[in-house]
Amino acid sequence: MNLPNYFLADLPPEATLSPAMIHAACDTLKRNRDKYLLPRPTAAVVKTLCEVANDWLQPDNLFRKLVVEIGPAETGFSSAILEKGLDGFFRRFTPENFQALLEQELGHVQRLDEFTSDRIAGEHRLTMVRGPEFLIHIAAGNLPNPALMSVVLGLLTRSAQFVKCASGAAFIPRLFAHSIYQVDPKLAACLEIAEWRGGNRELEDTLFAHSDCLTATGSDETLAAIHGQLPSKVRMLGYGQRVSFGYVSREVLRDESIAQVITSAADAVIAWDQHGCLSPQVIYVEERGVVESDKFAELLALELAKRETTEPRGKISVEESAIIASRRATYEAIAVHRADAKIWASQNSTAWTVVFEHDVRFQFSCLNRFIYVKPVPDIAAALQGVDEIRGKVSTVGIAAPTEKMKELAVKFAHWGATRICPLQQMQNPPFTWRHDGRPALGDLVTWTDFEL
Amino acid sequence: MLFGCRGKPATNKHRLNKELSNYATRLRELIRQHELFAGEQPWHGQFDELAIELFALQFTNNPAYRKLCEARQLTLQTVQHWKQIPAVPTSAFKELELTSIPAEDYTSVFYSSGTTEQKPSRHFHCPESLAIYEASLWQWFQIRFDHKVEFLFLTPNAKQAPHSSLVHMFDTVRQKFGLPESAFLADLGADGSWVLDFESILKRLELACLLGKPVELLGTAFSFVHLVDCLTEQNRSFQLPEGSRVMETGGYKNRSRSMPKTELHGLITDRLGVPRENILCEYGMSELSSQAYDSEVYLPSAIRHPRVFRFPPWARVQIISPETGKEVADGETGLIRIFDLANVFSVAAIQAEDLGVRRGDGFELIGRAQLAEPRGCSLMTA
What we know:
The structure holds two protein chains of two kinds. By secondary structure, chain A is of the alpha/beta class. Helices cover 42% and strands 19% of the residues of chain A. Chain A has 15 helices and 15 strands. Chain A has helices at residues 19-37, 42-56, 62-75, 79-90, 95-106, 145-156, 171-183, 185-188, 201-209, 220-229, 258-270, 293-310, 318-337, 379-385, 402-415, and strands at 116-118, 122-130, 134-138, 160-165, 191-195, 213-218, 235-240, 243-248, 280-286, 342-345, 353-356, 370-376, 393-399, 419-422, 446-451. A seven-stranded mixed β-sheet of chain A has the order 10-11-12-9-8-13-14, sandwiched between helices. A five-stranded parallel β-sheet of chain A has the order 5-4-3-6-7, sandwiched between helices. Chain A has a three-stranded antiparallel β-sheet with strand order 1-2-15, with no helix packed on it. In chain A, helix 3 runs antiparallel to helix 7. The longest helix of chain A has 20 residues, at 318-337. Chain A starts with 18 loop residues before the first helix and ends with a strand. Chain B is α/β, with parallel strands linked by helices. Helix content of chain B is 30%, strand content 18%. Chain B has helices at residues 18-33, 46-61, 63-71, 92-95, 127-142, 165-177, 198-211, 221-233, 261-272; strands at 88-89, 108-111, 122-125, 150-153, 186-188, 194-196, 215-220, 245-249, 279-283, 292-293, 315-320, 333-340, 349-359, 362-368. In chain B, the strands form four sheets. In chain B, strands 1, 11, 12, 13 and 14 form a five-stranded mixed β-sheet that branches. Chain B has a five-stranded mixed β-sheet with strand order 4-7-8-9-10. A two-stranded antiparallel sheet of chain B has the order 2-3. In chain B, a hairpin with an 8-residue loop joins strand 12 (333-340) and strand 13. Chain A binds chain B through residues 76, 138, 140-143, 146, 166-169, 197-199, 216-219, 222, 241-242, 272, 274-277, 279, 318-326, 329-330, 332-337, 348-350, 364, 366-367, and chain B through 64, 67-68, 71, 88-89, 91-92, 95-96, 321-325, 333-335, 351, 353, 355, 369-382.
């Protein structure tokens, strides 16, 4: 990939980052932010971002072509999966969606630009917000969308931004940064992308010293480790590891609606090969539908087989493959001896696996399109099954008629789910999604009240 | 030379299937007669024949195994070669009674270790199955060890740990070499874990150094971590007399911090003064009756790099691609599958969850594949 050297991540692999380089990059970012970003109105930032996204959606876009050509080798996802995932993301970049996000999180579209009236306080108070001066994102693995969305939010808050990717995982954030550069070099000059293996104290201490706010996604231990490294002036927004599951009500398990439900379930499993926090690892299916729960599992297996031909799973390591093979072998042995357990699996590959079992306990999938289907009499049984992951759940995707969906949603909300959506929407959160139940943009800003 | 394949119904007097018993007796004799330094010659043509014969007996007499074979449409008619014999995943030993021994004849059972497991694997035994286990382990062990040297086992003794196949192996060796029971230098903790008796170990090591007599230290990888950690804590290190050796086996099973073998061996060399070439590795598990070692004979120079493990001639190994289920090419990585004829009364073909690199007729051990964090949420990935 022959891209110009605009970002640290563009340096040849043999180049070693030094604290001095990080220090210089941070100083430049701050200067550029003061010059190019702070004076810019929100509407202009939104316009640029919509333009960038629109470019990505064009079939002949250079960056899109690079994703298709070398993305599979760089990220481990097939080009079909990368294209679908990125298209779904960039399609949401519309002025209307930005407006909705700003209004939801800040109460006013121009609150980042000027003092605006406060509806609740009436005429006696004006308010405005400002973002962090220097925002760091510790970006997660290879799944690009969360990192890209973090950059978008940081641009809205006019923050200098430094995106630290895991080593070998900067490919798409880097392309995104270049795509911003192509539309607006000055905006891109307020953004830095670099990659190194987490835990490099020299580089990280230098970086953290420049910052006033940091976002990070990862396991509780990883977040705690980062938190322990931060100077006290840095505010940290940590997104812990989350899992998701699906729930299918018996009313949609009918001949006329089953095809749609199966398509939705397959979409949710296939997207990002199940590597996202929003990917279902288990689908609970109500018993006594016209289509029985084991038939649902069988149909899902057929659909996954079909989709493998058009949206193949990415290449995985021998270790990942070994875990799938071992877990399959276990369930094959169980299924032979227990009538209530079944398994369907791709032949001559580990591309997809469906395990049907009655044990309602939530089971962590080994991912890469390995899905559990568990029959339940009702939502009470499912809630009992997911008790162990309470507080660790991102999304519950439901397939049910509208009225029943509302009933189920109330129960899942009381239980602690932070996002409930139709099964087919699991992997496509709206722009206004409150990440893990928190306002993603709102959490970045600080308010100034001006009392008249 | 096949025995009859169709087992007759067991009578009350002879519950253990007679044909299996005959097979076991014959195999035990073959193992005993095995020419220690004659290579594999006597087994070359015999292995396949013996394996197919055993498959027929196990298919007939082991109902849980037969069901698995039939589900895969692999039967006496379709299996023609030892490589086609259906392998059973080690995890199936947790769920199923994979044995031809009637339940009332069980005299002991070996459990897989690992504190995090809710259900251990179970390998059921009777006197005849133990006899073949002992014959197998002894033949492959004795050519690597010098009985004139003092042995220190870093495990509890057989009375304390009756369900450990490793401890049974050590106890068999101890008896055959005529060693005292005081060679076992660990106790059982309140939670059933193995706790090293540091005081006794240090005394024995001090004495060995004082007398200039070499010792053989045998134990699990996690026990060696405990030992070197204890020595580090006390800021002590030994220079064990020349000829002293270490045999380590197994993984860490969450009982100690984990580390690559080379790092563990480095620590052992630092703290015990045993050079790398005198550290022997064993690969075994409760579901098997034979073990693999990474050295051919007693001679230290026999340890090659990379360390290549080999089972005795009555057990063979295949490295299987987890993706396709087919044997990988030499030098490639896959899951380790073992065909152990000494598993007469359970199942000969065992599919392990460990990864290995195929190296000729042996393998380089990589170890258990760990469940990766979802890529969307992992930070520390290299």
